[in-house]
Amino acid sequence: MRMRRKKNLDERISSCDRHLLFVETADFYQKEHSERFNLIDFRKVFGNDNPIWLDLGCGKGGFSLETAKRNKEVNVIGVEKISNVIIEACEKAAETDPDNCMFLNCAVENLPYYIQKGKIERIFLNFSCPYPKHTYKNRRFTYKNFLKVYKYLLSENGEIHLKTDNMRFFEFSLQSLSENGFKLKNISLDLQNSDFKDNIETEYEKLFISKGLPIYRLEAYL
Ligand SMILES: C[S@@+](CC[C@H](N)C(=O)[O-])C[C@H]1O[C@@H](n2cnc3c(N)ncnc32)[C@H](O)[C@@H]1O
Q1: Which of 35, 56, 33 has the alpha carbon at shortest distance from 104?
Q2: 65 phi and psi, to 5 degrees?
Q3: Which of 8, 87, 162, 188 satisfies CB 3.0 to 4.6 Å to 125 for a cystine?
Q4: Which residue segment(s) compose the domain that 217 sits in?
Q5: How far does residue 85's CA lie from ligand 1's centre (Å)?
Q6: Is residue 91 part of a domain?
Q7: Is residue 1 over pLDDT 70?
Q8: Does a structural domain hold residue 83?
Q9: Residue 40: helix, strand or coil by DSSP?
Q10: Residue (of 148, 176, 152) closest to 162 by Cα position
Q11: CATH of the domain at 58
Q12: Which tens digits make up the pLDDT trace of 64-87?
């Protein structure tokens, strides 16, 4: 089902410029390769050289904002391709006006056009769309093409932290990460009943927990 476009979306997006770093325009794929680049100067944006963490497919941004609030020594960027969704994150950010949390309205696969190599310390993949049909497996955030993007973005000691309610997607991710050179650690098949402390629940996670579903979690590094 298609989501209805929010009222006055364009005006609302333009008034979010304090926390919305960039909006990928519809003509992105018509542009020449060299015209697509719009590299972000993080020092200019955040006024410091603190580590950068990305929340990919951040949805309404609750996790990005709470992560930034609890980790003041880190800068968090939520990435989401749907303007209709990220507007909620940006408007929530405007209420508390954090200096260390920003949003990017673009497709994850295009991040190397906006972020320089090796600049990212941590990537969160929270409840990414599982795309259960085999024909769409290349859209999964842990498909090999996405992993290439993360390898490019991550710093030497960078990590991926993944959570999902979807066992098949979790199994696919374990296999794809291992086959593509990532090592795995801190794997949990039931996060709620594990020793993991200080979990920050995302919007989707709250929903799955309320239904009594187990949450799968892993950390991956190179
Ligand atoms: C299932 S939601 C999870 C949202 C949030 N992480 C949470 O846990 O509540 C997945 C989000 O990923 C976004 N998404 C899917 N494919 C994407 C892509 N290629 N680039 C950026 N965002 C994407 C969707 O629009 C959606 O908002």
Answers
A1: 56
A2: -65, -45
A3: 162
A4: 36-221
A5: 9
A6: yes
A7: no
A8: yes
A9: coil
A10: 176
A11: 3.40.50.150
A12: 999 999 999 999 999 999 999 999
How far from 217 is each of 69, 125, 153, 173, 203, CA to CA, in Å?
Answer: 22, 10, 21, 11, 16
Ligand 1 centroid distance, CA of 56 (Å)? 7
Scored b (16 or more CB within 10 A) or e, 71-82 reads beebbbbbbbbe
Q: What are the tens digits of pLDDT across the range 24-74?
A: 999 999 999 999 999 999 999 999 999 999 999 999 999 999 999 999 999
Cα separation of 204 and 210, whole Å? Answer: 10
Is 203 close to ligand 1, i.e. is its CB under 6 Å away? yes
Per-residue pLDDT, averaged over 4-19, amounts to 92
Looking at the structure of the chain, the number of domains it has is 1
Residue nearest (by alpha carbon) to ligand 1 atom 14: 57
Q: With a 6 A CB cut-off, is 146 part of the ligand 1 pocket?
A: no
**pLDDT tens digits for range 12-24:** 999 999 999 999 9
> In which residue are the tokens 């992560």 written?
67
